Amino acid sequence: MKYSLYDDIKETAKLRSSQIAIIDHKNRVSYGDLIKSANLAATELKSAGMKEYSKSVLIGSDSAEYLISALAILANRGVFVSAGKEISNIDFNNLLDGIDIEFAIIEEQFLKNLKPKLLKECKSLQVGSKIFTVFKKCRKNTQNNSSFTDINPAFIRFSSGTTGASKGIVLSHETIKARTEAANHALKISEADVVLWLLPMAHHFAVTIMLFLRKGCTIDIAVDEKHSQIITKLLSGKITFVYATPYHYGNMIRAAQNMKKSGKLQKIQVPDTVRLLISTAMPLTEDLCAKFADFFGRFLNQAYGIIECGLPFINTKANAKTAITVGRHLPKYQVRLALQDESDTAGEILIKGDGFFDAYYDPWCLKEEVLAPGNWFHTGDLGKFLPGGYLHIVGRTKSVINFLGLKVFPEKIENILNTHPAVKEARVRGKNHSEFGEIPVAEIVPTYNSKICEIELTKYCSSHLPSHEIPQEFLPVEEIPKTRSGKILRKKQ
What we know:
The protein is α/β, with parallel strands linked by helices. It is built from 12 helices and 26 strands. It has 3 domains: 5-144, Rossmann fold (3-Layer(aba) Sandwich), CATH 3.40.50; 178-396, Rossmann fold; 401-476, ANL, C-terminal domain (GMP Synthetase, Chain A, domain 3), CATH 3.30.300. The strands form 5 sheets. Strands 6-7-5-3-4-8-9-18-19 form a 9-stranded mixed β-sheet. An 8-stranded mixed β-sheet has the order 2-1-11-10-12-13-14-15, sandwiched between helices. α1 (5-15) packs antiparallel against α2.
């Protein structure tokens, strides 16, 4: 029988049935109850027709119920398809079509904005205190290709991948196990850990969430909590591990400053019980790194994650000289830089090792067809090595904009802007931001006798795009710079 991540988690739960798996505000879910609830939800989904390798997208808030529903998909050996709750209706329906989704499980509060065109409602599913609506594909006799089922797929992340054309990065059960084990060489997660979780679960389910549950630790979901509550938890002595972005750490600094001014906080020092303060999803700035160290007495541990590769770099030995880097590569990986010239110090980062993705979904393409000779993966990121083998990420070769770890594609926004009657042509670029990583900024060539109205264009974009893809600035220009072949120049600001 093929390996199953869910069976792995069930075995972990047997050994520590009464231990708390999830803290979600006042709700505490033990490992025993986690498996019991996931099994019940899986039975309901199976009665709706979910089968082995049914591609199933889950839309919900970051909660215990979300994790239970995700595990229910895996319990049926279905394939969990990642999509964040911020997804627009247009992108949602493109996902249903592009990945050939068979089931959509949508939390009640998101039904107002998401209207699946290719699926029909088939049942209501109650998980804990939340109600989900289950939609099923209208067409019958959906068949997966044999290459897809042969790899034992568990997870698909909706992304264009490195090719810029492929949709969906496919990870097998075996691949996820391999990459979690590779990451845990550095993270050393165990049942003794209590993780302060601040990131969107949909985008991190396949590596860290699976690692935490496989190792039997406690996940304290604090995504929607006030900054002051997060600070209180951080300083409580109960947390051992933090998983967040530079944006969250910036909020912690401001919250702690306000709490100190108001007299609610006397001492600001991260206790030694916190083993690691992982910063991921986007690069740390030197300024934020220094401010956090000055204010909290600890250096952040930057990690470099890639959905195709896992977590090949985690800086567990951060200090004043190395905190801005992602550390040395983990033992299960190899890395090299593709330098354009012998005198260059920075080049594109190439990686190979355990836990690499299995395929791109559409058009179907196995990893062997994508990897460079020698099984190297081209990340599209630029880096340079500092003394001691520490890798510093200095930029990206791709045009993608990194907003809080979410990928924003300029071409998509430009296509929307170019449909507005006042816009003759648009170019969208990433602008560096100290907290968000990058923000999208639009340059607009107006049509004849038109004026650029920022409020109007923002409103127009908001009706077609999710909030993180709406340009933060609209700049009128006379023309858009292009290459000799007529393509838009993509140099970032």
